Amino acid sequence: MLFCQVSQSISFDTFDNGYVFCESVDLEGNTKWVKTVLSPSKAQVLQIQKQLNYLGYKLSETGILDDETKKQLEQFNFDVGLGKYPYILFKTEKKLKRKCLKKQRSN
Fold first, then answer.
1. Closest CA to 90 of 10, 15, 2, 3
2. Helical H runs in the chain?
3. Which phi and psi (to 5°) does residue 77 adopt?
4. CA angle at residue 72 from 68 to 73, to 5 degrees?
5. Contact assessment for residue 85 and residue 34, using Cβ atoms and an 8 Å cutoff
6. Which of 7, 44, 46, 56 has a CA that sits 20 to 30 A from residue 95's CA?
């Protein structure tokens, strides 16, 4: 059992090509399964940091999934309707790519 920054308890369940399904329980006892990146590579984290910066979320581009990055991930996930998760969700990657492409096209 892991404890997240937002006081959610998460337990690992099923592995799937670098992803893990986590059962998240919030403070009210609501349960939700989310697909998260099991162990993101430095390159993967760096790419996500660059995308977040491009979209206006200010953080250092280190390739390390540090507290600053988790805070911005949590905010991004919340902003796009994925919940307050300080992790790289499967859907986080997809939403980041879409938002970056949309911003590039509008510039």
1. 15
2. 42-54, 67-79, 90-106
3. -55, -40
4. 115
5. yes
6. 7
Task: State which amino acid sits at residue 99.
Answer: K
Of 47, 73, 69, 51, the C-alpha closest to 59 is 69
Burial class (CB in 10 A: 0-12, 13-18, 19+), 19: middle
DSSP label of 39: S
Q: What does the buried/exposed string (b/e) look like for 36-55 if buried means 16 or more CB atoms within 10 Å of the residue's CB?
A: bbeebeeebbbbbbebbeee
Residue 19: beta bridge partners? 16, 37
The amino acid present at 77, given as its one-letter code, is N
What pLDDT score does 90 carry? 87
Q: In terms of pLDDT, which residue wins out, 1 or 62?
A: 62
**30: closest CA among 56, 53, 12, 7?**
7
For residue 5, how many C-alpha atoms fall within 13 Å in the half-sphere facing its CB?
14
In angstroms, rounded to a whole number, what is the distance separating the alpha carbons of residues 91 and 51? 14
